[in-house]
Amino acid sequence: MRKVRLVIIGGGPAGLAAVLGAKHAGEDDILILERDKQLGGILNQCIHNGFGLHTFHEELTGPEYAARFSCEIKNQNILYSLNTMVTNISKDKIITAVNPSEGLFQIQAQAIILAMGCTERPRGALNIPGTRPAGIYTAGTAQKFVNVYGLMPGKEVVILGSGDIGLIMARRMTLEGAKVKMVVEKMPYSSGLKRNIVQCLEDFEIPLKLSHTVVDIEGNRRLEAVWIAQVKEGRILPETRERISCDTLLLSCGLIPENELSAMMGIELSDQTKGPKVNESLETNIPGVFACGNVLHVHDLVDFVSQEASMAGRKAVEYLREPKSGQKHEVPVEAGNGVRYTVPSRMCLEAMESSLPVRFRVDQIYKDGFFCVYGNDQRIMRRPFRIATPGEMVQILLTKKQLEGIDLQRIRIELEAKINEN
Amino acid sequence: MKTKELTCIGCPMGCVLTVQINQGKVQSVHGNSCLNGDRYARQEVCAPARILTTTVPLAGDDNHLMLSVKTRNPIPKNKIFACIQELKKVQVKAPVHVGDLVLKNVANTGVDVVSTQNIG
């Protein structure tokens, strides 16, 4: 069986940054397995700009951001296999994959980085009643049709969900000549970035209907109309039903980390993030298996994916140099009041570098409050913020100094703030 | 005197800005929490501009039908559709690289359109 020291599953933004992180840490025996015909993952179809402000201090488009990484990978002569689908990973790190040139094959890895990204919630996951006509797509599928194949999925469009892909597609479809009638959002706020609401909706006078959802779908062969209604305190108000004629419905209703492979190999997953539970080194419960990017938890900014993935690459190399034996003393990192989840969800103080980014999301919109960190029950950090929304991931930096001298049993991240009422 | 309401896109705060305009000149900006809001409002009121990104058909590469492109600099907001129309007539042949010129001075904006992809 072919042997490779470090295998990265997925050649999207996370996989590419993880590889470079590992390469820069001195590892040479690396292989990327990518199912698409090119490196870059979802960035290839994200032709809009706004990527890379943190990493490169300029606004790049998705393909440009990907090109920066894939050029570097080619320059460094790092091996990658395209058109290669991984079908199984065993607990002892035997990877089974298939591609047109090699057929079915296996690789024994010493360390693995999971970087499979995430997938969109399809109609089937949303429980929308009605018929099943053509013309209903996830926003990302429509994006691939338009930007990669040059095909328009329809002419009169309603978009359900105001996540960033939905907003971006509202603009894209409009530019390509479609009439986008409205973006419908179930929550009283958009989960998309503010700049996208301004540049993608307001610029083109596309209405955003907050606290509304699609309650019925009409049409036999092709979609003819959707029915929308107002949502109040989680309940649909039937008297507000309204028929919107359209031939296309795009769904932008959330992303779910793609963890079929992780589950098959026995990796412990979080109910909150749907991604692996990891420690301070982004290592899963299986030693030598790391996770980063959207397979770990869904990010809003690719720059943060790159940072996280680069660390996973570095940590995988540390593992390869010195596989840890025996139990480490790990303590839980808990999501307290107002916090939905934290990554990592556990940590080992001895293994921690001088600082550790902890990423989390809040559960509602809060204004003028504090992010607080507790070691056991002692507050060790209190950082003010102006606004915190579920749509924007928060990152705080724990330092080893803050935690030393405490007989650490647990860490808790918590919010001190009032819920924003308007 | 005209009043215009904008949402600042400088940061996640999303301040609602009220801009007072007199004969095309900004008199005052209110509602901003920082200097960026003031700057954004003045630019947005006088000369709103956007980077345009789109795709053009690509010939000469079996794996790619479209090439992603962008305006090298922001173009006036009201020229977006004129630029899209002009770019409909363009076809590019592979190989092509990031930054290669696709169309000069698109829709008389003085701004060039360049490739954002490496193909071939």
UniProtKB/TrEMBL annotation, chain A:
Signal peptide: none annotated. It comes from the Bacteria. It holds the Pfam family Pyr_redox_2. One of its GO terms (molecular function) is oxidoreductase activity. Keywords: Oxidoreductase. Residues 5-303 form the FAD/NAD(P)-binding domain. The keyword Cell wall biogenesis/degradation does not apply. InterPro entries: FAD/NAD-bd_sf, FAD/NAD-binding_dom, Metab_Enz_Cyan_OpOx_G3PDH. PANTHER family: ANAEROBIC GLYCEROL-3-PHOSPHATE DEHYDROGENASE SUBUNIT B (PTHR42949). This is Thioredoxin reductase. It comes from Faecalicoccus acidiformans.
UniProtKB/TrEMBL annotation, chain B:
Signal peptide: none annotated. InterPro entries: CPE0013-like_sf, DUF1667. It holds the Pfam family DUF1667. This is CxxC motif-containing protein. It comes from Faecalicoccus acidiformans.
